Q: What sequence folds into this?
């Protein structure tokens, strides 16, 4: 049990932190929503009503989509783009998808390689892109959910203000949709870019996200 | 089943259920 917890600390800890913070977001969001409701003379809502409402849904998934976009772009981008001196980058002369030998696919698979890495046909082609494809798919579905829940939340507000609701396609061109989207995207791009660049000169002892403390600034792709 | 495999399934499951849940809320226009 102790060993299982230690060996899986990252996945377990971040999973639990996610759940705790989602619960926190639900209560803080309900409080904020009810402040607005009271200010406009409307009835406050229960926590059960709030967590099944589109204002809560759009606030959650607008953040999900940007995180998965970030990882999707990072996973695919780092195949082709490198950063000299960064632990986040591979060696600068290794751009691209690399050889079958380096990637241990097809006839170069090891005895313990995943079966789809050994297959050498379409299964290997799919499996070789599976991380990026899944992250990209989660991004697209989250962004779709943001647009659908965002439209519902936007229209509820419109009706409250005695203004006309808009269609889903109309909402895709609305300032509300793009403001929510881009305010999340900009922060993700800054965080990813700064992580790649700051890791050239700064260190975190013991972290695989950093080079070893004594590694030269010019060393690329080292972790420790 | 190994702990990493359980974590993998739980993470993908939570994300999938979460996306369906939030998408449904939006589609119902709640």
A:
């Amino acid at each position: 049990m102790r060993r299982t917890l230690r060996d899986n600390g990252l996945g377990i800890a971040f999973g639990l932190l996610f759940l705790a913070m989602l619960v926190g977001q639900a209560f803080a969001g309900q409080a904020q929503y009810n402040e607005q409701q009271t200010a406009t003379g409307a009835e406050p809502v229960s926590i059960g009503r709030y967590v099944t409402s589109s204002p809560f849904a759009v606030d959650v998934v607008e953040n999900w989509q940007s995180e998965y976009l970030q990882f999707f772009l990072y996973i695919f981008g780092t195949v082709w783009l490198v950063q000299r001196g960064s632990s986040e980058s591979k060696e600068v002369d290794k751009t691209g998808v690399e050889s079958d030998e380096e990637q241990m696919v097809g006839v170069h698979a090891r005895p313990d390689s995943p079966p789809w890495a050994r297959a050498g046909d379409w299964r290997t082609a799919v499996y070789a892109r599976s991380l990026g494809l899944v992250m990209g798919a989660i991004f697209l579905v989250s962004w779709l959910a943001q647009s659908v829940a965002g439209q519902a939340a936007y229209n509820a507000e419109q009706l409250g203000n005695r203004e006309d609701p808009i269609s889903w396609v109309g909402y895709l061109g609305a300032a509300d949709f793009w403001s929510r989207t881009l305010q999340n995207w900009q922060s993700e791009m800054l965080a990813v870019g700064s992580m790649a660049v700051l890791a050239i000169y700064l260190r975190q002892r013991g972290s695989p996200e950093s080079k070893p403390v004594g590694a030269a600034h010019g060393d690329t792709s080292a972790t420790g | 089943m190994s702990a990493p495999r359980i974590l993998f399934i739980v993470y993908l499951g939570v994300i999938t259920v979460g996306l369906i849940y939030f998408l449904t809320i939006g589609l119902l226009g709640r």
User: Anything to note?
Assistant: Residues 9-39 of chain A form the longest helix (31 residues). The two ends of chain A are 27 Å apart (CA to CA).
